[in-house]
Amino acid sequence: xxxxxxxxxxxxxxxxxxxxxxxxxxxxxxxxxxxxxxxxxxxxxxxxxxxxxxxxxxxxxxxxxxxxxxxxxxxxxxxxxxxxxxxxxxxxxxxxxxxxxxxxxxxxxxxxxxxxxxxxxxxxxxxxxxxxxxxxxxxxxxxxxxxxxxxxxxxx
Amino acid sequence: xxxxxxxxxxxxxxxxxxxxxxxxxxxxxxxxxxxxxxxxxxxxxxxxxxxxxxxxxxxxxxxxxxxxxxxxxxxxxxxxxxxxxxxxxxxxxxxxxxxxxxxxxxxxxxxxxxxxxxxxxxxxxxxxxxxxxxxxxxxxxxxxxxxxxxxxxxxx
Lengths: 156, 156
What we know:
Chain A has 156 residues and is α+β, with helices and mostly antiparallel strands. Chain A has a single domain (3-154), classed as Gcn5-related N-acetyltransferase (GNAT) (Aminopeptidase), CATH 3.40.630.30. Chain A has five helices and seven strands, in the order βααβββαβαββα. The first copy, chain A, has helices at residues 13-26, 37-45, 96-110, 125-133, 149-154; strands at residues 3-7, 52-58, 61-73, 77-87, 115-121, 137-139, 142-148. Chain A has a five-stranded mixed β-sheet with strand order 1-2-3-4-5, sandwiched between helices. In chain A, helix 3 (96-110) links the parallel strand 4 and strand 5 (115-121). In chain A, helix 1 (13-26) packs across helix 2 (37-45). The longest helix of chain A is centred in the middle third of the chain and has 15 residues, at 96-110. Chain A is globular and about 55 Å long. At the A-B interface, helix 2, strand 3, strand 4, helix 3 and strand 5 of A face helix 2, strand 3, strand 4, helix 3 and strand 5 of B. Strand 7 (142-148) of chain A pairs antiparallel with strand 6 of chain B, so a sheet runs across the interface.
């Protein structure tokens, strides 16, 4: 196995959307993915760049991805958010997740940001253990709030 | 009382940092605010623009603020994150929070984003009730994860 981590290009987005869908299925929310590779290309590589993506390759085959973007903490200043850290199921437990997270952390350090944040589904104990081992904290005292598309439409 | 909501300018940042500190005290984390108004000006109004800020004024006195920025959902596409929604204590329960949230929601609708997200501290039942009344969902099944500045430094 020869794993390489590199920055994603437009042409990788069909593979990346497959990974996103695989993760959504794993998270028991397969119908929640409402975007496609065209939207990813438009939003990540065209006029605007709403995210940055690193991919993991094994012999030129894409087996994982990390999708990140800037956030801003009014306590700490600039931060990086890791939206997804995905390794395709059959390639898990080979250290690919660590290589991707290493890349994200090195990138965050280079930018001198004060935090890398992400979100984890509560029953994914394996992921939580992995994150805790990396020095991350689970913020038990805070909750995520969403005003979703329907709520936005109905908002008065 | 004559409340006006407008986009913040550089010169508002000293008042905004006071509001941020007031909220951090209310959240029992007064020592967590590590930035100042100079950093806010640099990060919001100079070369880069990592956030956007709306403020609420009562007779030219700043009494509240909403700080937002872009995020990106690999399920929904572009979203807006509301980092802070602050109303100074003595001006609460006058509808100022609603006016600020309205402004954020209208802005999000104009951009056609699919979600507005934020975070709430679990014991702030008043805030949670306010958000639920606006149609927001508390994501009970997901947790926030932080790799903070120390963890980044110690990350191997």
